[in-house]
């Protein structure tokens, strides 16, 4: 059993839901998990033995709160297992150049934070229209149309491959 910090940032809530899913999965595997929204003050519990970072791409970058948490944590986490789940629409693109661009942003994020050797998973995100103002909703519909993706009539269009995410979390946990 390991003490695992799941540190996440979310703008429309989807990555928050994925972080809760990952935390529940790790807890079910017998680990002691601390789930931390990086927008909140840091937890004051014992330092973790492993760290799972999760954040989403907005206009080409991950949330500032996650970047601050990762930079502050990097010296404390050196030598410990760290994994990063980067959530974006590009991750689910059929265009390999878009996927490569998302990978490069995530790799740069880790390098900027000073985190070496982290496992990386790109997860396709979601569009939850009720979380968006009309102009952003219109912009997201344009992006989906450009990618031949039909918005779900419910307003929640989810692209996440949950099995792939679960597999990544399980592989991370297996290495602890
Ligand atoms: C305003 C806005 C900007 C976005 N910018 C990007 C982007 O630059 N690249 C990308 O691949 N996805 C982008 N996305 C898609 C989000 O990464 C995706 O919707 C993700 O699921 C959001 O996660 P969250 O709900 O945790 O914030 C954007 C979404 C919104 C609403």
Structural class, by secondary structure, is alpha/beta
Major sheet description = 5 strands, parallel
Low-confidence stretches are: none
Q: What Rg do the Cα atoms give? A: 16 Å
CATH superfamily: Flavodoxin domain
Q: Helix proportion of residues, in percent?
A: 40-55%
Bound molecules: flavin mononucleotide
Quantity of strands, as a count: 7
Instruction: Write down the oligomeric state.
Output: single chain
Q: Numbering strands along the chain, what is their spatial order in the largest sheet?
A: 2-1-3-4-5
Mean pLDDT: 95
What is the strand content? 15-25%
Give a written overview of the molecule:
The protein has 176 residues and is an alpha/beta fold. It has a single domain (3-125, 160-174), classed as Flavodoxin domain (Rossmann fold, 3-Layer(aba) Sandwich), CATH 3.40.50. The chain has helices spanning 14-28, 64-77, 96-113, 134-146, 162-174; strands spanning 3-8, 32-37, 50-56, 82-88, 119-124, 126-128, 156-158. Helix 2 crosses helix 3. The chain starts with a strand and ends with a helix. The model has no long low-confidence stretch (mean pLDDT 95).
């Amino acid at each position: 059993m390991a003490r695992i910090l799941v540190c996440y940032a979310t703008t429309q809530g989807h990555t928050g839901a994925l972080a809760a899913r990952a935390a529940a999965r790790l807890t079910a595997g017998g680990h002691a998990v601390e789930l931390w929204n990086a927008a909140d003050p840091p937890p004051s519990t014992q330092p973790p033995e492993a760290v799972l970072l999760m954040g989403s791409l907005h206009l080409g970058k991950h949330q500032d709160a996650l970047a601050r948490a990762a930079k502050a944590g990097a010296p404390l986490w050196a030598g410990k297992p760290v994994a990063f789940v980067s959530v974006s629409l590009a991750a689910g693109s059929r265009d390999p150049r878009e996927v490569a661009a998302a990978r490069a942003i995530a790799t740069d994020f880790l390098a900027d934070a000073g985190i070496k050797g982290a496992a990386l998973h790109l997860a396709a995100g979601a569009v939850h229209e009720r979380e968006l103002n009309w102009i952003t909703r219109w912009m997201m519909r344009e992006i989906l149309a450009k990618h031949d993706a039909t918005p779900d009539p419910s307003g929640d269009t989810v692209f996440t491959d949950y099995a792939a995410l679960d597999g990544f979390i399980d592989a991370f946990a297996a290495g602890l």
